[in-house]
Amino acid sequence: MMRVLLTGASGFIGRHCLPLLVNAGFEVHATASRSARETASRSGVYWHKVDLLEGQQVDGLLAEIAPTHLLHFAWYAVHGRFWAAQENLRWVQASLGLLEAFARAGGQRVVMAGSCAEYDWNYGYCSELTTPLRPGSLYGACKHALQAMLGAFSRQTGLSSAWGRIFFLYGPHEGPGRLVSSVICSLLRGQPVRCSQGNQVRDFLYVEDVVSAFAALLRSDVQGPINIASGFPVRIREVVEAIGRKIGNQELIRFGELPTPPEEPPLLVADVRRMTEEMSWMPSLSLDAGLDHTIDWWKRELPLGAGRLRAECRG
Question: What pTM was estimated for this model as a whole?
Answer without folding.
Answer: 0.94
